[in-house]
């Protein structure tokens, strides 16, 4: 007998990556691994591979609204995960959608650069996210280069970027791994002054979709009702394992193994 799905539903608004390493496929796989159901809404189409991004096209606002509203009218959304938005207009579109679900956890991954360094939105998109979207988010998960763009501090440390950004967002997770340090330091900041540091072993190589994986796993843990600091720890541990077990199917970066072999 068929039974109603008891898995929490996470609404994902992000771009499509045809290589399958990042974007909505990363969201879906990471959420499946948390025991959640992903409801993917496409915000943009990209031309990219495991090496870098060549081009992208942001979808029409009405199409994105129609996708998301179809989900909201049918499914009990327990969390929202944001990835690539690509334009200021898409930032405003998400702000409008957020007003329909003001109380569910919202994880904002401010995707502004691909893993290979290519732009996935102008810096003005980041500033619009900072001013209009971060105040509506539960937590933002930029890596250090993205945090520097958002904070307008080109050489800022994680602490300096957090000081600049916390007036905009309640919680901020700035991920490390972009330097040559032996250990990776991921730092969680709270507007209330709380701070937590999570350290993990640095892995060799570079990875395509690690930020999407982390933010989606975190959204899933919050949808399951896990407390924020514990959810961050769970998501970081899961993401590290996906990078440890990553594979290199193409000519560029490694792709995280988000699902076990017997699920592939």
Report on this model:
With 264 residues, this protein is of the alpha/beta class. It is 36% helix and 21% strand. It contains eight helices and nine strands. The chain has helices at 23-34, 61-74, 88-98, 123-133, 144-151, 158-165, 210-223, 228-244, and strands at residues 9-16, 37-48, 53-58, 77-82, 106-108, 139-140, 171-174, 183-190, 195-201. The strands form two sheets. The protein has a six-stranded mixed sheet with strand order 3-2-1-4-5-6. A hairpin with an 8-residue loop joins strand 7 (171-174) and strand 8. It is globular, with a radius of gyration of 17 Å.
Question: What tags apply to this protein structure?
Answer:
264 residues; alpha/beta; 6-stranded mixed β-sheet; 3-stranded antiparallel β-sheet; 9 strands; globular
Radius of gyration using CA atoms only: 17 Å
> What's the N-to-C terminus distance?
26 Å
Can you list the strand order of the major beta sheet? 3-2-1-4-5-6
Largest sheet: 6 strands, mixed
Structural class label: alpha/beta
Low-confidence stretches: none
Strand content: 15-25%
Give the ordered list of helices and strands: EHEEHEHEHEHHEEEHH
InterPro entries: HMP/HMP-P_kinase_dom (IPR004399), PM/HMP-P_kinase-1 (IPR013749), Ribokinase-like (IPR029056)
Pathway: Cofactor biosynthesis; thiamine diphosphate biosynthesis
Organism: Pseudomonas benzenivorans
EC number: 2.7.1.49
């Amino acid at each position: 007998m068929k039974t109603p799905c008891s898995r929490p539903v996470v609404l994902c608004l992000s771009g499509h990556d045809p290589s399958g390493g990042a974007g909505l496929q990363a969201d879906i796989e990471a959420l499946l691994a948390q025991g959640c159901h992903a409801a993917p809404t496409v915000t943009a189409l990209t031309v990219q591979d495991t090496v870098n991004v060549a081009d992208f096209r942001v979808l029409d606002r009405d199409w994105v609204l129609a996708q998301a509203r179809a989900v909201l009218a049918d499914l009990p959304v327990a969390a929202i995960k944001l990835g690539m938005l690509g334009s200021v207009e898409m930032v405003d579109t998400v702000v409008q959608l957020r007003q329909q679900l003001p109380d569910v956890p919202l994880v904002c991954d401010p995707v502004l650069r691909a893993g290979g360094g290519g732009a996935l939105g102008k810096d003005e998109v980041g500033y619009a996210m900072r001013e209009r979207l971060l105040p509506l988010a539960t937590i933002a998960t930029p890596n250090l280069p993205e945090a520097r763009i958002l904070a307008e501090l080109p050489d800022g440390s994680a602490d300096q970027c957090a000081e600049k950004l916390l007036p905009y967002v309640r919680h901020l997770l700035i991920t490390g791994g972009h330097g040559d340090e032996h250990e990776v330091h991921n730092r969680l900041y709270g507007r209330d002054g709380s701070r937590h540091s999570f350290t993990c072993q640095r892995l060799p190589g570079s990875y395509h979709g690690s930020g999407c994986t982390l933010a989606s796993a975190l959204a899933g843990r919050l949808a399951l009702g896990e407390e924020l600091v514990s959810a961050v720890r769970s998501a970081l541990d899961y993401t590290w394992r996906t990078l440890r077990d990553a594979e290199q199917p193409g000519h560029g970066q490694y792709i995280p193994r988000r699902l076990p072999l017997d699920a592939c």
